[in-house]
Write a structure and sequence with these properties.
Strand content: 5-15%
Radius of gyration: 21 Å
Structural class: alpha/beta
Number of helices: 8
Distance between the termini: 28 Å
Helix content: 25-40%
Strand order of the largest sheet: 1-5-4-7-3-8
Largest sheet: 6 strands, mixed
Number of strands: 10
Length: about 260
Amino acid sequence: MAVDVVWKGNEYTNSSDRKGQAPLIIVNHISAGSMSSMDSWFTSPDNKVSSAHFGVSKQGIIHQYVKLERMAWAQGITADRIATAPAAIVRSKGINPNLYAVSIEHEGLDGELTEQQFDASVALHRYIQAYVADHWGYTIPFDREHVLGHFQIDPVRKASCPGSKFPWKHLYAALSLPDKGQGGADSMEEQLKQLQTLVTDLKGRLAGLESQHQLQEVPAWAKASVDKAVAQGLVNTPTPSSLDLYRMLTVLDRKGLL
């Protein structure tokens, strides 16, 4: 996977052994400072308390401070607070989250990412997923249970990390799409196959929904989305049909899949 990652870690960068744990989650953070201050702090001999695997600048530059084979000191919590963590995986694992997490710091204060920064972060999430799959044989799901914010692990000390403006919906939507960054005919053919499979699956689901709970009129809130689905041949006869169908089409439309 072609992602330009600049190695910045040194002999002073904090890290520990994963103790046999594979990375299972990606945790997003906000640096509350500049990229240069992040570089300085994560490589300083005076820093004895924290680190991160990656940092992403507002210009879309990616720095790495800790190898993925080791755990960074980024989202650890004391044992007595594990049971109250909002993230279900943290409660179920019952151990220090640093052991099975990959951490990404984003330059900034409130979580609002530049376009270059957002694109770089999406590419980095994909890079991490591919690296973990290659080295541990486990594919980190790009869902709300495995792509997290620091606040979902430590809602007391880090309630605002990675920031109120962090683009969660945009991030999950981007990660749900096929990877467009590989290039080449083979990659494009594979992406086409994935899209065809997705369309076939959607048609099957729509057919099932159409047979249930028929409504005689399209709800006003769904009409624009239904019209798009009809124009694309996903739906032959919009009425009568089910409420679930109209909801699904509206969601697909809002995610830009229609």
